[in-house]
Amino acid sequence: MCINILPKALRAVSLNRKRNTLVIEFDPDACESNLPRTLASDPDLSRVFQDVLGCQHLEIYLHEPKPAALAKLTQFLPAIEGKLTMIDYFDRKIAGRGCAPNFSRSEIGYKKAWEIAIDEEFETECEVLTECLGGNVGLHVQFDDTITVFYERNRPYTHEAHPLEGEPTFKIKFPDGELVPAYCSLKQVDKYNSSGFLELTLSNKSDKHLAEIKKSSPAEFQLFPCASERRKRQQIYTLNEIMKALKEKTSVDLKSIVWGAGDQEAMRKVDPVLEKCPHLERLDTYQAEAFRHMLHREEGSTNVVLISGPAGTGKTTTCASALAAVVDLQHEWLPILVVAEKNKAIQAAFLSTLKATEENKNRNILFLLSKHARLAFEKESDPTLQLIEPFTLPAKIKEKGPKPDQISWVDFKSEIIGEQSIVFTTIDMIYLTTKYWSCFKPKILVVDDAAATNELSCLLPWVQFRHTIKRFVLTGDQEQLKPYAISGNGTMSTSLFQRLRGSYWPVADLKMNHRMQPNVSEVVKSAFYPGLNFEARSTEEERESGQEKDEEPSTEEEAEDLSEAEDEDTTG
């Protein structure tokens, strides 16, 4: 249990030298408090906790303090009372780069740590972009009014060190001092990331500007890249919504997430109808336990489920089986929202669920594609696009028929999304298409690849739908890639998945590999997963049957490929 006496709660602080005590008078109603659910289930502990919360006077006894220590404490009293600020010290302590955050003691500390991390990430991104892409440049106008950027000869190409994403913006300083805005389209970003040649489009096309560029000399212009204000706004929005949600009552216990106080063990009791369903019978022992943990019916839990496992152990397959079981047998859990930060991960989750639900002709699934994802499919001539196409929003609109004249396109699309049983999309798309989700009320939220997703991104879909979500599922493997932070800030580069595991949150661990050959899995196990039962399932079956069996490739292979660039797009 934990109680934080906040500065606004303090009434008086004094040092009683005769009794060697520090005396604090405070308002208990203005304090933060948290009692983990496992302790709250004990009536005696709950009563003690409530009695302590009602106190207004705290006396801390000092064990034989030395005179020098008392003198320092006397100097420290004004800071405790709030008469002196300690914010500089607080900033330095939290913002130390590379240090993993510890939020388990204060909601105020949680907010402050993230405010520092967001500012530091934005400022560092500005510096890196300026170093990589800023400076004196020459410009050339192509036949379609595209502007090609040429750097000085002695400048090395640096696009591999900092690839672009989304639709980044720039400012071009003309010789007369005028600043002209420009941007990279999705195709221009893709060209830069693959070849290193930077092309821009002027935001406000002008014949005067084009003519001036055409007659210019090399290195006559200055280029100023701009960091993503949109991403910063998204992070600040999520943080503010988290602080609001801490004061609300929701099915998912957000306070336990922020304070790192979860259940003590994984849940295992499910509806009896699920115990006999074919989706559960096809899973191995560890996957079956994760399936039960994901769909458990036990009262008093935090409703936050962690599923962990190395590559090839079937995290995506397990989740897909659970989702298929809900579609077939547990309609009260519908609808479901499945998200991931990267297109490859959400694509693999969709394909696996599509396969698991193929026998259900009444499935109603939507894959909400971004422009960036569709562009990638078209560029690679990926045949998967044909499989996905019938489940995209344009296909659903065509299937529903003409839009009635009396409603807007936003309402029409919102209505279609609201009719779906399961929706798959990226986290960014949740934020960028906020106005289209008014009719969708998900009860289960699944974040795939959560160990490679930073905490604010992971919580964004939850805060968006927090009033209807009853189960929050995070799947991942913290031994693979971590969230990327260009600033190196520990808060930004630590995933919610990793932080909860570090606070001994209950996790369903998948331990049987379905992809690697035994000699390969032994190397991986010794290097990254010492002590883990990491045996290939095909080997186990060979021992029982005495004959070899070919193993089909898993669609999860694509989900574990974390080398793809982060998806950023516009609403379209």
The side-by-side strand order for the widest beta sheet comes to 14-15-13-16-17-12-18
Q: How many structural domains are formed by the residues? A: 3
Question: What is the helix tally?
Answer: 24
* Total E-strand runs: 20
Give helix % range: 40-55%
Mean of pLDDT? 80
Remind me, CATH topology of the largest domain?
A: Rossmann fold
Structural class: alpha/beta
Nearest-angstrom radius of gyration? Answer: 27 Å
* CATH top level class name of the largest domain: Alpha Beta
The CATH superfamily name of the largest domain is P-loop containing nucleotide triphosphate hydrolases
Q: What's the N-to-C terminus distance? A: 48 Å
Proportion of beta-strand residues: 15-25%
Largest beta sheet, briefly? 7 strands, parallel
Low-pLDDT residue spans: 85-101, 538-572
Please state the overall shape, judged from the principal axes of the Cα atoms: globular
Please tell me the CATH architecture of the largest domain by its name.
3-Layer(aba) Sandwich
Protein name: DNA2/NAM7 helicase helicase domain-containing protein
Domain DNA2/NAM7 helicase helicase: 283-363, 413-487
Pfam family, one: AAA_11
GO molecular function: helicase activity
